[in-house]
Each structure stands twice: as structure tokens, then as C-alpha cells.
Amino acid sequence: MFERPAAGEKAVLVQLDFGTGDAAERLEESELLASSAGAAVVAVVQGRRQAPDAATFAGRGKVAEIAECVRERQADIVIFNHELSAAQQRNLEKELGRRVVDRTSLILDIFALRAKSHEGKLQVELAQLQHMATRLVRGWTHLERQKGGIGLRGPGETQLETDRRLLANRVKVLKDRLKQLERQRAVRRKARARREMMSVSLVGYTNAGKSTLFNALTHAGAYAADQLFATLDTTSRRLYLPGAGNIILSDTVGFIRDLPHSLVAAFHATLEETASADLLLHVVDSASADRDAQIAAVNAVLGEIGAAGVPQILMWNKIDLTGAAPGVDRDACGRISRVRVSARTGEGLDLLRQALTEAAGGGETGLPAAHAA
Q: Do residues 232 and 148 lie in contact, with contact meaning Cβ atoms separated by under 8 Å?
């Protein structure tokens, strides 16, 4: 299993441009991912390609450049801000003489660092084991093709089958435990529904300010930091709204572009809380130059977890960094579509509370229309 970088472990970061037009934003994000995992980025290697190289992803010349950079900077690991196949990762480690980490493994590792609750730890372990299982199978296929032979009779295939069985057994145990927790979560949701309390979930790109906003509204003291995936475990609190009564507000894990499918599947129980909400507050870092792509990435994940039809209000956060004034925007039907706030300074939070009161039925227009992902 991928071993997380120790604090300060020196890393060379590799970011290739395949013509998508967002290379600068992806590079900035990959640097944040690396630092969030505890690595110290000592060098960045960039390049352009039409398509990934089948054997090494980066191509022979670029791999030589990376190797030289590793030697010059005495780097401990090489981080690719791309998803590598098992064969590509193995070939790169052979060529570079260093541990190679791809984007999926890096995100899984950060999730492992952030998980605090029992359920969160189970979900991360499940995602890591499923990721490792695919690489174990691919890594051993050369033994399967041999069908024995000198030095390869028996033990190699037996070891592979043993490893597969152990992984499969552990995955089954984790899935069973998570199903039990999911049933408990469903019971709690039904109890809330009987009390007729509106359920509101904060969603958004990682580091958009969801936990800061959650704390500002509920005074919950949830962990908030300028890190990717600072929040991993869902936290829920009651919030009293004059004129509307109590609602349930939940702070959830942040999303990111190219979120590994294994994580989405493993976090099904947690993400189902979002899909069952009455309203989504989609928190956006309005100061980010990449905000439109981030909004699209969040809506894509919402569609994947069955939450595309849940009504949502855009929360244009961090207006203290952009100089925008707090305010409320409405759609053609008069329903609130966007609220401009600063969770850090508190500007516009009164307008947000009014918007939530209106959505809860304390105003005239009610819930906004479902957002088309």
C-alpha cells in the first residue's frame, strides 16, 4: 500500500499539459495536494504532450529530465499530478530509482490523514484496498501467464491467490460494516423527517470555505484550515432561524476535479447524506480564477451521487478578497440563486440566514429550483 510522505519529504512534482487549457490551475492545485500530504515540493517538471506515453506516461526524454532533477535536488519521491497505470508506475520507479506517487494515491493518502471518525477510516481503508487490489492483479499477471516453469512453479501463483483472497475478505468485511452504518444513518434521517426539520448540506470544491461558513453559522468549532480536504467527516448541527424554526445544517467533504471513483464509491454512505438533503448550499471560492471549472467539477460529482436534482443556492464566498459587496441575486422567478458573503469576516451572513429562512418556508418564494448539473 502507498506509504504517505513524511513531513518535509522532498518531492519532484510532474505536471504535463495535454491541451486542456487549465494547466496553470491544475499545477497550483497539485502543489496544494502535495503540501497537504506532508511533502515539500523542491522542483516542478512541466511539459506538453498530445497523449500519454503507454510505458512511462511522460515519454523517454521527459523521464530523463525528471531523473536529472531528482538527482540535483536529492528528492525522495516523484509525484505525478495524473493517474498512472500500474505498469507506468512500475516502469517509472525502475527508471527514476525513487518511489512514484500518482494523483489518485495522493488523494487517498490525504483522506487517510484527515479521517477521524470510525466510519471515515473504514471508508478510506476500503478505497485504498480497492485501489491496491487492481495494482496487485496487474502487477502479478506475468506470473499467471507463465503457467509454472523453473523458479515459477507454485509459490508465485499461490502467493497471488492468497493476496487476492486476503484483500477480498477484508473488502467484504469493510463493506458489511459500512452497510450497517448506512442503515443507522438512514434511521437518523427518517427521525429528522418525522420532526419536519429541513436538511441543508454545504457542498463545494475543497478549500472553498465550507467549514469556516459552517462555524460562522453554528459556532460548532469544526476544524477549518487553508488545506485541501481539511474536512472529511460529516458534521451536523441544528441551526435556529427566526421565523422558520430549526433546520439541520451539515458540513461535508469537499470535492475536487477527477475525484477517484473508488473514493466516491467508498464514501457512498456519507455522500448519501448530501443526496437526501432538502437544499444544497454550494460554496464557491469567488476569489479563485478557476471558479467556473470548480463549480462544474462539484456539479459533476453531485450528478454521480444522485444529488443533481436537489435544489441549490450558490454561496459566493470570500468577497473580502475580491472587494465585492454582500448581496442576493434572484432568478427570473424571483427565487434566490446566489448569495455573496465572506465567511471569514461575517459580511453577508445576515442575508444568508434570510435566504435560508425563505427556503425553509418562512418567506414567500420557498426553495430555489433544482440546479442543472
A: no
